[in-house]
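We close this part of the discussion by returning to an individual protein. Part of our work consisted of pairing the sequence of a single chain with a tokenised description of its backbone. No coordinates are needed to read the tokens, only the vocabulary itself. The amino acid sequence and the backbone structure tokens for this protein are reproduced below:
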Amino acid sequence: MNRLPRSPFAMSHQRLYEIVTQVQALLWFDLDEDGNDAWNRDKEWDVGLIEAVASVLIKADLRPTEGLPAFQTVKRAESSNPPYPGLVMNDPDAGL
């Protein structure tokens, strides 16, 4: 069954906070020269890190199932009930 991922707009503020905190830690939490935990805004990223971020999003059910068309363009929605408020998928007239 093809379906859109869960809409972040439908998630609670607390759940979104938890997801963003996890992703933020993956991206910038590191060890300093002495081996202590520290934030590192210049931390280098690799494939393993991207896989870890994807894992966080998958666990939050924010991954689409296979077979869905890719988001080709995005623009403000004219529909009153889009799957993601404010977005339109696959709109060839979007000027992005």
